[in-house]
Amino acid sequence: LPSISLVHTTVKGTNGMNTTPAERYQIILDQANKVIRTAQRKAADIRQPINLTVVDSSDTLTAFRRMDNVCTASIDISMTNATTVALFNDWTTAPLYNSSQPLGGSLYGLEETNGGLIVVEGKLPILVKEGIFIGALGVSGGSVQQDVEV
């Protein structure tokens, strides 16, 4: 991803526990658009139209792009992919998938919560170089492998 500058106020250390919204890092529109442009270029390189969603760390929609000729059903999938990462403070697919499996999964049924989550690939947390979570990218429109590649 392109380097992005950070806009923030005083931070106590993370976006999670013991912080107020004013103390948290958040992706801004310019940063979200850079992420989307980068992902869109990759989708064009592999010749696969994609829906791209960026939310901030509190799961507020920051930017969305629907490429031409992409399946409209995947709009919701890209948004839910981004939401899943944001609601779990940057957890990605592997821990969610492994924890949501029926045999011994401590989070079995997780995908049924919060109006529906997705535990398949096609999502990434957006972190600043300090490792602080500022948002999430959700991708959908191609095969799972194409979504991951984008």
What does this protein look like?
The chain has helices at 29-45, 73-87, 93-99, 144-149, and strands spanning 51-56, 61-66, 123-127, 133-140. By secondary structure, it is of the alpha+beta class. A 4-stranded antiparallel beta sheet has the order 2-1-4-3. The relative contact order is 0.21. It holds the Pfam family HbpS-like. InterPro entries: GlcG_carb_metab_protein, PduO/GlcC-like, PduO/GlcC-like_sf.
Give the count of helical stretches. 4
Q: Largest sheet, if any?
A: 4 strands, antiparallel
Radius of gyration: 15 Å
The helix-strand sequence is HEEHHEEH
Low-confidence stretches: 1-12
Globally, the shape reads globular
Q: What's the level 1 CATH class?
A: Alpha Beta
The CATH superfamily name is Haem-degrading domain
Tell how many strands the DSSP assignment holds.
4
**What is the helical fraction, as a range of percent?**
25-40%
Q: Mean of residue pLDDT?
A: 79
- Give me the CATH architecture, please: 2-Layer Sandwich
Structural class: alpha+beta
InterPro entries: GlcG_carb_metab_protein, PduO/GlcC-like, PduO/GlcC-like_sf
Pfam family, one: HbpS-like
Tags for this entry?
single chain, 150 residues, alpha+beta, 4 helices, 4 strands, globular
Show the helix and strand layout:
Elements: H1 29-45, E1 51-56, E2 61-66, H2 73-87, H3 93-99, E3 123-127, E4 133-140, H4 144-149
Antiparallel strand pairs: 1-2, 1-4, 3-4
